[in-house]
Amino acid sequence: MNGGNIILIILFGSFIFLCLLRVPVSFSLFLSAFLSILIEGNVPLSIVVQRIWVGLNSFPLLAVPFLLLAGQLLNETVIRDYLFNFSNSLVGHIKGGLAHSNIIISMIMAGMSGVSSADTAGVGSVLIPAMIKEGYGKGFTVGVTAASSTLGNIIPPSLMMIVYAACSNLSVGGLFLTGIIPGLMIGVGQMAYSYYYAVKHGIVDVHKFSWQTLFKNTKVTIPSLGVPVIIIGGITLGVFTATEASLIAVVYIFFLSFFYREFSFTKFYRVIKFCVEFSSLSLFCIATASLWGWVLAYYSIPQAIVSYFDTMGLLNSQLLIFSFVILLFLAMGTFMDALPAIVIMYPIIGELTLRVGINPYHMGIVIVLTLAIGLVTPPYGLCLMIASRLAGISVPEALKSIVPFLIISLIVVLIVVFFPNIILFIPRLVMPRFIR
Amino acid sequence: MKKFVNLLEKIQTFWGVLLFVVLGIVVFIQILSRFIFHNPVIWSEEVARFLLFWMVMMGASISVKKETHFTVEFIMPEKIKNQALRKIFRLIPNLCILLCGVVITIFGYEYFKMGRLRIGPGSNINMQYVFVVIPIAGVSMFIYSFYNIYHILNIKSLKEQRTGNPTKK
Fold first, then answer.
1. Which of A44, A80, A280, B94 allows an S-S link to B145, with CB 3.0 to 4.6 Å?
2. For B17, which of A30, A62, A269 is closest by C-beta distance?
3. Interatomic CA distance for residues A250 and A237, integer angstroms
4. pLDDT at A223
5. pTM to 2 decimals?
6. Which chain B residue lies closest to A273 (C-alpha atoms)?
7. Rounded distance, CA A329 to CA A156, Å?
8. Which residues of B touch A53 (CB under 8 A)?
9. How confident is the model at residue B169 (pLDDT cuts 50, 70, 90)?
């Protein structure tokens, strides 16, 4: 146990120290794990490369590059414009029409891609200029675009959920299904706030509603709406694995782009290049994090930490556990990317969930929702950065307008914490064998 | 040196893209064989995992050169006025990656040698073909971070900061 304590200090201390010096997260994880093994001296050092290999040798993780590609392809094709026309003819007649379309299109795209930053860039480049022209405040425009795109990681499919499922051996489909209700709640909450904003600031922005345009736009959009059906339906019914479903989505979008005569080789090469680089960043981080987590588990540190919590009396109340988890992941999501945050903390969270007897899917959705908030909080709020760059304002300027959206998300997190039966209703209905 | 590094980056990028395309085809074959031919192939899942490993190691190396690996945005070098201090904050990550490159190369090579007798059970691929990418990635990470250090030491003022955010151009 004494050896474990020293390892604990070296592992966490050097990791945090290196991170603060701006050493990339993946290399900080690698170096701190290497250092711990070196100092302890009982484990052969070649374990460091072996764990990188083992961490990546997983079929579910293959979904990461494919989902990323699906999201990028959507933004590059005319499908995005169809979706925009569709959502505009659906909700454009409500006060604050463009804000509502922004949220609706984000929700639909969330059902096609699992990557929030792709949604921000895709939706924002069209809707931010249009909304500013209609008289919305720049801050509000950034807020609604960035906040609604976090739904990309909440409404299935979702990269965060795939990584969480890969860490914890939960069913990807089951985790996906828990995201539907909280995602809808956040979407509706954001629309309610947009309505309030439009009324308060006297923004007209009302488009005429006609059944004819809605019908026309629906007809054009139906082929694209096949994507979420394939992914969510295919995975939850057990027809495909998450990896296969995301590849089918890619092939389907690819086929559509052929159909709409938009295919070009240079575009395709550029998009794939971006996906290779971006997904390698996340996956390499996951690989070194799995090495780090292995060191943690080898010295039984998660058990030691949880036992320590036990002696402090923290394990008696689920509420305390959840507040600890929410605060921890809010802090981590603020400073670093969500995917490594999941992999780093999972050994401890998993042990905690097991000991206290919380439903693992309940814990999973709370963590995903909390980390999604981190996507719009600086300094490391990718979605907020992209949206404010598109609107031409600085991140601190946008910060004030993002606060109401943060409150909406936090309220939903609290609802999920207190009423697990609401969100576990759908997965229990569809996959009764997996989720109790 | 610049020419060589840029060429290496281009080759690795192209190779990564190629691996990704092949990866897509392999997974697609797996789906087709199950649903259309009702005769699932046994090698596809394993080959797909091997390809992913190769792809990630390539992408991770390229990102060392581009300095786009995820960082914790606690200290923002953009806000530091002092040029020397700024330089130091860009040198430290690269020096650490240099060290990682050495470690990955040494132990990766050892692991590669151990893979000689191992064979992937589903595909009969000798694991050396998979593990060889570990020392390759180690060496290229070393080269890229060395190049970055050389570059940072030789420029007068640092205007652009690319570190940590892959969406910044």
1. B94
2. A269
3. 19
4. 84
5. 0.88
6. B17
7. 20
8. 53, 111, 130-131, 134
9. very low
